[in-house]
Amino acid sequence: MTKALNAEHITKVFGGLTAVDDVSLHVDAKELVALIGPNGAGKTTFFNCLTGVAPATSGTVTIGGYEVKKNTKAYKVAQMGISRTFQNIRLFSELSVLENVLIALTNQYKEGFFTAVLRLPSFYKTEASMEEHAKRLLKDFELEDVMYFPAGNLPYGVQRKVEIVRALATNPKIICLDEPAAGMNPEETADLTKLIKKIQTEYGIAVLLIEHDMSLVMKLAERIYVLAEGKLLAEGTPQEIQNNPDVINAYLGGGANA
Ligand SMILES: Nc1ncnc2c1ncn2[C@@H]1O[C@H](COP(=O)(O)OP(=O)(O)OP(=O)(O)O)[C@@H](O)[C@H]1O
Question: S-S: 41 plus which of 87, 227, 247, 253, CB 3.0-4.6 Å?
């Protein structure tokens, strides 16, 4: 089976600091994998290498079997089938929830230049299909009640949810979520857990999850990779990771939210 994501020997150097050091990781199609590690371990930097936000110093990334060429722009990498969320919410706060999702859909509903400029009938048909698609997604994730609200006015947990649905709207092979539960209350975290599971099982999209909330990770992940000081410390099932002495020493025993 083609892997949703295959990253081999990724290294990222900032000046004198090697933030990610020869890390290889893969996510199979429809698999849910977590990447954990103490603060500063290199998790977000690794995500940035995967998604073209800050290209790796060395190493290769393939998405759905296609290699990401060096210096490919982040939006081109996204078009190859990887989408992500950031630690800090990056919605268009003045726009409505619906408009935020519509923006993410535009790549899938491309219109010819003349069709758009001349406002030919197919332009309006495409617009209507996009809106229907966006509303279907919002309904599916129980966001239809807030779809006309400015995204920036919504509670934090709801904004996070909108951001994930927006990432889903690009029709990716894999979604990378960077600490989606950070700052959420227990009720919001429970809702988020269901949402992530739904992306994997009902939408058939692979998920790579960075998260400090260990109960969420242990509940959701099929496999876990552990980073420490930029290096891959361990890889295994949740049970193997929980019982790995190196991991307990470096992370779970180090005051993490276990
Ligand atoms: N743009 C940058 N320039 C220089 N150093 C950086 C840059 N980005 C990250 N770093 C450094 O790289 C290391 C890894 O940081 P990174 O944010 O990837 O860790 P993390 O595992 O995601 O941490 P956290 O769990 O706190 O988000 C840190 O020492 C950080 O200071």
Answer: 227
